[in-house]
Amino acid sequence: MVLRSENLWTFLITVAIICRVSQSLHFELRSGRTKCISEDIKSNSMTVGKYTVVNPNEAHPSPPSHKISIRVTSSYGNTFHHAEDVDSGQFAFTAVEAGDYMACFTANGHKPEVTLSIDFDWRTGIHSKSWGSVAKKSQVEVMEFEVKQLIETVNSIHDEMFYLRDREEEMQNLNRVQTPKWLG
């Protein structure tokens, strides 16, 4: 029983370390251009995002040319966030349908052409929860906090496994339907 317990703790600690990996992006966008980033999100998953146009000269206010438009949509065309002429912002929603969600950034046209640097942090599922603020608010013991975080991570992995199993079954059914009789 001790061996199983040690293996469980090793597994849980490994999962916790892996889940702490940041999912932040930094990319460049030229004036008048659009760049889209896609994320496969399962239904009923919490999603949060934060974006900022990096100011090239932090000593001064951001120039008017450093504005973007952003639209976050589902694969069915539903818009979950839209902002025009902004230099930063954030969004949060619970996905109502499973599929690819797309965040499209458009740099306003400007002459002469400029290249904008954008920081974008998009988190879904277990990664979207701000565990640091939960710990501060409730003043829980450190170990209790870690155990709750690990339980949440394990539950998320469990849900993800069922989701992947369903997707695999859909793909197998699709392959069965599309396989010509002379191959099968």
TrEMBL record:
Entry superkingdom: Eukaryota
Keywords: Coiled coil, Membrane, Signal, Transmembrane, Transmembrane helix
Domain GOLD: 34-149
Compartment annotation: Membrane
Gene Ontology cellular-component annotations: membrane
Membrane association type: Single-pass type I membrane protein
Signal peptide per UniProt: 1-24
Family: Belongs to the EMP24/GP25L family.
Full protein name: GOLD domain-containing protein
Taxonomic source organism: Brassica carinata
